[in-house]
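Response to reviewer comment R2.3. The reviewers asked that we include at least one raw input/output pair. We reproduce the pair for ATPase subunit 8 here without editing.
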Amino acid sequence: MPQMSPMMWTTLSMLTLITIMTLVMTNFFIKNFNFNMKKSNKLNKTINWKW
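Raw output as returned:
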C-alpha cells in the first residue's frame, strides 16, 4: 500500500487541477454566453419596438 500512496496523490492532484480548470473555463463561457444573450435580448427589443 505505501508504494501506491504517491501515485494516488499525484493522480488526485491532477484530477483536482483539471476540475479547477474546467470550472474556470465553464464559468468564463457561461459569463460570455449570458452577455451575448443580453445583447440579443436588447436587439430583439429594439426590433420589436421598430415593428
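The radius of gyration is 22 Å. Helices lie at 4-50. Further pairs are available on request from the corresponding author.
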